[in-house]
Amino acid sequence: MTNTNHALILRAIERIARMQQEGGKADLVWSEFERSLTEVFGQRLFTVLAYDEASSRLGRLHSNRLDINPVGGLKRVTQSRWSDQVLRRGEIFVGSTREDIKSVFSEYEVLWSIGCESVLNIPVRKNGVTLGTMNLLGEAGLYDQADIALALVFAQLAVSPLEDQVQKLSGLEDPDFMEQV
Questions:
Q1: How close are the terminal C-alpha atoms of the chain, in Å?
Q2: Mean pLDDT for each 10-residue chunk of the chain (181 residues)?
């Protein structure tokens, strides 16, 4: 890692930490995460999902593409390799290709249409419990060399703002149709 990269990463982490110290509003905090993660990892699509294990639902708290992934959207979690890895075991998922995207997302064609052919799903956990995920999607292979240890640092910075918003998920009504994950 070069000194320039090191300085960029530290500035990104510092901005998030300062915003949380100052009690920033949730939408501003997530926008800062989006900015910082874009600088460090890059992405075309950034979403934050809260996870409610009891109801097997994910609820979207933030999206930089409201036309594609509106805030408040719900996904029913089904048993899959992805849900076991990311939600239950709390391990980061890296998908590098269109096929990886198709295997994980029911809306894969929409994702492909905006140039999202790879994904970095970062579980946000506290005390061994997954509170949600931060999801970065971009061009094919973008996250193949991603610094997973650094992604874990960002995940820990996201614990507090995600905890503050988790109760929103329980208040959302089940629509007639929910995306499957």
A1: 35
A2: 75 90 85 94 96 92 93 90 96 97 93 97 97 97 96 95 75 46 43
Single-letter code of the amino acid located at 63: S
In this structure, the strands spanning 129-138 and 118-126 are antiparallel
**Is-contact 181 104, C-beta < 8 A?**
yes
Q: Which domains does the chain have, with CATH numbers?
A: 42-180 (3.30.450.40)
pLDDT at 175: 45
- Asked whether the CA dihedral 20, 25, 28, 29 is positive or negative, the reply is positive
- Residue 166: CB atoms within 10 A of its CB come to 17
Element containing residue 130 per DSSP (H, E): strand 129-138
